[in-house]
Amino acid sequence: MNVTGAQVLFRALKQENVDTIFGFPGGAVLDIFDELFRSDIRHILVRHEQGAIHAADGYARVSGKVGVCLVTSGPGATNTVTGIANAFMDSIPVVVFTGQVPTPMIGGDAFQEVDITGITRPCTKHNVLVRRIEDLGRTVREAFYIARSGRPGPVLVDIPKDVTRAVIEEKDISWQPNISNNNNNGKYAFTPEACMKALDMIRKAERPLIISGGGVLLGKASEEFRTFAKKLHIPVTSTLMGLGGFPATDPLWLGMPGMHGTYYANMAISHCDLLIAIGVRFDDRVTSKLDAFAPHAKVIHIDIDPASIDKFVKAKASIVGDCKPILNFLNQYVSEKGFTIPEGQTREWLKQIDLWKEHAPLTYCRTGKTKPQHVVETLYRLTNGQAIITTEVGQNQMWAAQFYHFDYPNSFVSSGGLGTMGFGFPAAIGAQVARPDKLVVDIAGDGSIQMNIQELATAVNYNLPVKVVILNNGYLGMVRQWQELFYGKRYSHSDIANVPDFVKLAEAYGAVGLRATHPEEVESTLQQGLNEPGVVVMDFHVEPEEGVYPMVRPGAPLTEMVLSKEEKAA
Amino acid sequence: MTVRENTISILVNNKPDVLARIAGTFSGRGFNIESISANITRNPEITNIIITTIGDQETVIKLEKQLNKLVDVLEVRDLTDVSSAQREMILVRMKVTASNRDRFTQIVDIHSWKIVSTDADYCILEVTGDRQEIEDSLSLLETIGMEDFVRTGIVALKRCSPQQIG
Q1: Residue ranges making up the domain that contains B152
Q2: So what's the pLDDT on residue B161?
Q3: Chain A interface disruption, residue of B12, B70, B71, most A CBs within 10 A
């Protein structure tokens, strides 16, 4: 029996257990969309291709599956580039299918033609132009394999229109991925020796600290990680990407470190003698001045990507591999041999950490206009910490990370590496599709929310009841803060006034719009919004010149924190 | 860390796009490709790309780790400190006139260079050798009327153990 390229694609998607794709049609993908019309795979039609890729990303982060995005050639494809780079930076498994002009026309500057494989080469884990229908089935299977294996990442598959229309005998289709030569495959078996070396270092530590990152969540290892930290009774800090990997309500939790991290997390890093890093890549927002980072510590680095080891921070011991089996091995050894850090060895250290916590907890001035931190705190309380929170980028993102306490993995969705404004709302849509049972809230700024505001149509159309909390200060807040601190308060183009009227805008899209202009209105507005069954946009007018603190100036060591507008760290 | 020239041999799947990805990895990390040679190995589905680039050892190790991540890269070998035979080739076009003919013939004989084509006034020379020999030959030919030349990338083959192929 003959099948078309479009049919081959859908069969491959079925083989990969894909039940949802996010996309937007166009000329080059008409045959694919025609096949989609007959398929039982759910397609979420967005209003901008950037919305599709961010939604697929959010879907992947929350579900643990590979996110799938389908767009047309030319501008459809280029509209996904930001989202692909975003997924690449945060190592999120997504497969992006882009239409392409027919093969005989490639390279001739055809209508809606771009060299998307050329454009996305540096920001995809892998990409491929499928020139023949014979290669299509296998290539799609390979794309999914590459996206999800090892250190996950985005894979782009560019499919020319004539390939989608070509026919092939069913028996001639090859489905088997051919990745046997992939060099990285062999590197993911960790050695017991490496684990024993690490345990030996742990036994001797007097001031141990664990720093975890996105790798723990991508490795689906938060259970094993929790067991590891609790069994050994070692304090835990976690980067932005790792939030939720360890329960924030646990007494061992120190909050997030880095440029806007907690005082106590930064002090702990700066004074520990053993730093156990699991699934982190030592990004500059976390380390700040590298040669002043964890100056007294020996580092154990556990990571799936060998290129991360010794990239920025020298490891005394490294365990390369998937953190789930590694942590399992360590936990098993600890449990069977009754391994502990000798009694009392870390007592002084734990006391010191408590003193740091008392000295400078996360704080803000509660008087005056509505404080954005108060909005987040209230949201946390009203949702019992059970919501899936997505964020945009900037001050809104930092306050969300600081004042919402995440106890569960895959409940915090934020653009860490690329820092993409406009990510949070479509990502929330993707998250809601993945978890229809959960409350999903996008914490946004008035600048960021406008970047993909058109996706209100998507959310309302499919009744994906995402709640948007806008911390509206009339500024591009983080830019304004830097301009205040480092550019003599010259607010160059960071003032975005108070347009639009977000309530009217929400209603124009068929959503519910609510506004709170005074602190007393925060709780009731949030409560009302969270209780609405559909899409809600809540516009909170907050203190215009509030800053995110603590702050470590760029290039400064982590110990040099500014704790508030007035106060420098002691 | 001393900055020096490094020779890296990369075994890759012989597919379109792979070279572009390799080049992009070099440039994306701030490395210039000083010279490059690429051709199939005994297995026609596997290509050996040999690139020389300038950098200190620590940074080059990071570059090699990044190359190893690429899906179509099978193996990365740093041949810089490894005992290997290295050769480059140049083709040189010489204008041969009455004034330089004798000196030219003498030099070609001494070095046993190959003349691969001749014309009324021109000839093309082929010179093969290691880096130093090529540099020296070019300097010498410059003094006796070299018109133009083309130069290949370095090819290098490890001496000690048999070369693994795929």
Answers
A1: 85-156
A2: 64
A3: B71
CB A86 within 8 A of CB A57: yes
Q: What is the pLDDT of residues A365-411, one digit of tens each?
A: 999 999 999 999 999 999 999 999 999 999 999 999 999 999 999 99
Which member of A89, A259, A398, A478 is catalytic?
A478
Residues A222 and A155 in one domain: no
For residue A126, give every residue at least 6 positions away whose Cβ sits within 8 Å of its Cβ, in sequence order, or none. Answer: A143, A146, A153, A155, B70, B71
Three-state DSSP at A284 gives helix
Distance from CA of A149 to the nearest CA of B (A): 11
Give the mean pLDDT of chain B: 90
Answering whether pTM is above 0.90, one says yes
Q: Are residues A51 and A82 in the same domain?
A: yes
Q: Cβ distance A510 to A501 under 8 Å?
A: no
Instruction: Tell whether A461 is covered by a domain.
Output: yes
For residues B159 and B160, which has the higher predicted lDDT (pLDDT)?
B159
Record: contact A184-B69, CB cut-off 8 A: yes
Cα→Cα distances A401→A98, A415, A481, A515, A562, Å: 34, 12, 18, 23, 18
Q: Hey, are the CB atoms on A125 and B13 less than 8 Å from each other? A: no
Residues B97 and B76 in one domain: no
Q: Which residues of chain A have a CB within 8 Å of the CB of B74?
A: 181, 183
Using one digit for the tens of pLDDT, what is the confidence trace for A72-86? Answer: 999 999 999 999 999
Q: What is the mean pLDDT of residues A262-273?
A: 98
Candidates B69, B74, B77, partner chain A, best to mutate (most A CBs within 10 A): B69
Q: Are A325 and A207 members of one domain?
A: yes
Residue B164 included in any domain: no
Contact A183 B73 (CB under 8 A): yes
- Establish whether A161 is a catalytic residue: yes
Same domain, A479 and A521: yes
Q: What is the CATH number of the domain that holds B111?
A: 3.30.70.1150
B163 located within any domain: no
Please check whether residue B161 lies inside any domain of the structure.
no
**B166 interface with A at CB cutoff 8 Å:** yes
Confidence at residue B83, expressed as pLDDT on a 0 to 100 scale: 87
Domain count, chain A: 3
Q: Is A478 a catalytic residue?
A: yes
Q: Which of B47, B82, B117 is the last residue of a domain?
A: B82
Task: Please determine, for residue A569, whether its predicted confidence score (pLDDT) is greater than 50.
Answer: no
Domain that holds residue A530: 372-548
Is the pLDDT reported for residue A521 higher than 60? yes
Q: Does the ipTM surpass 0.90?
A: no
CB atoms within 10 A of CB A350: 15
Q: Report DSSP letters for A142-157, one per residue.
A: HHHHHHHSSS--EEEE
Residue A69 forms beta bridges with which residues?
Answer: A22, A96
| DSSP reduced 3-state for A532 | coil
